[in-house]
Amino acid sequence: MAKRAGVSIATVSRAVNGISTVAPELAERVWSAIKEVGYVPNTQARALVSGRSRLLGLVVSEITNPFFPELVQEFENLAVEQGYEVFIGSTNYEAARTEALVRRMLQRSVDGVAIMTFGIEEELIQRLVERAFPVVFVDAGPDLPNIRVLKINYGEGIREAVQHLAALGHRRIAFVSGPLRMRSATARRDAFLAAMAELGLQVPPEHQVEGTHTMEGGIRASESLLALGELPTGIVCSNDMTAIGVLHGLYRSKSAVPQDVSVVGFDDIHLAQFMLPPLTTVQMSCKHLAAAAVQALRAGIEPDHPQAQQREWHISTQLVVRQSTAFPRGSLPALARTKPASRRGASK
């Protein structure tokens, strides 16, 4: 293998084991040679020699939300490319399931775990932190040497969403949050309220609806807003699944989007661009999030990793404008846009 690749045996060993000090061009030559001869590395033997399983744990909250399968796919692709296998599990927000999942991961001797749950699951946190091996959390985690955190800038994208609606002329904008026991849901709501306050816009309590981050929760939230004396002209949602539910609830009420109500989501799941109308949303890139998670885990696992001393990775968000937002109903731009169609209809 070393002769075919034109490198030393030590370089082959370091490349196969994903050691970061191997130059990229040398690693590429090694893996090209491996493919040519059809060599399959024995991961169990490598684990015995290195003392590591080369197995990463990935914990997500649920699989029914399309955001998480997209995240899982990106994470697994990147991990495999870098010489790791992945043990994946979902907690479904259940304490008993969380405990069983942690036990299985510990039995498999994972090298580290990425907790991509966007929620507070104390049982999971406590059991993993006690083991004193690398753990990656989203948003916040214990201040310990083996803990690394992915900090998501919720305010960046949500501020863009609010300013986008305000620039169109919206002033009565509602927010549908996720379950407020979740840190990420609270952070998104607070970012919305801060962005509104920055523009001098009020958000009455009835325009702040707590949802469940599901389509069903979005439908119920739309029903709550429709029951008000006057429907807000814009609705910002804490995730895309909620926004899709809101779209469905408004459709059932005969309220048109965006003619009657503009709707904005959060996450930019793949499905968002295929909704009718295509959903304006705040993008939180699964690819960037997965890449940061894999690098943060490797930084904790590999002593010679160039980012071994880094404790935080920052994830940006940005608005993606599609067709679910427009001028508010009754405004002059909205009326002007509908007049030509009316005249064309009258001339037939």
What is the gist of this entry?
The protein is an alpha/beta fold. Helix content is 46%, strand content 16%.
- Give the tally of β-strands: 12
Which second-level CATH architecture of the largest domain applies? 3-Layer(aba) Sandwich
Largest sheet: 6 strands, parallel
What's the tally of helices?
13
At the first level of CATH, what is the class of the largest domain?
Alpha Beta
Strand arrangement, major sheet: 2-1-3-4-5-11
What report would you give on this structure?
The chain has 348 residues and is α/β, with parallel strands linked by helices. It folds into 3 domains: 1-41, lambda repressor-like DNA-binding domains (434 Repressor (Amino-terminal Domain), Orthogonal Bundle); 52-152 and 287-315, Response regulator (Rossmann fold, 3-Layer(aba) Sandwich), CATH 3.40.50; 154-284 and 318-328, 3-Layer(aba) Sandwich (Rossmann fold). Helices cover 46% and strands 16% of the residues. It has helices at residues 2-5, 9-16, 24-37, 43-50, 67-81, 95-107, 122-130, 154-168, 183-198, 215-226, 240-252, 286-301, 332-347; strands at residues 55-60, 85-90, 112-116, 135-138, 147-152, 173-177, 208-210, 234-237, 262-267, 280-283, 312-315, 318-320. The strands form 2 sheets. The protein has a 6-stranded parallel sheet with strand order 2-1-3-4-5-11, with helices on both faces. A 6-stranded mixed sheet has the order 7-6-8-9-10-12, with helices on both faces. β1, α5 and β2 form a beta-alpha-beta unit. α5 crosses α12 and α10 crosses α11 (240-252). The longest helix is centred in the middle third of the chain and has 16 residues, at 183-198. It starts with a helix and ends with a helix. Residues 341-348 have low confidence and may be disordered.
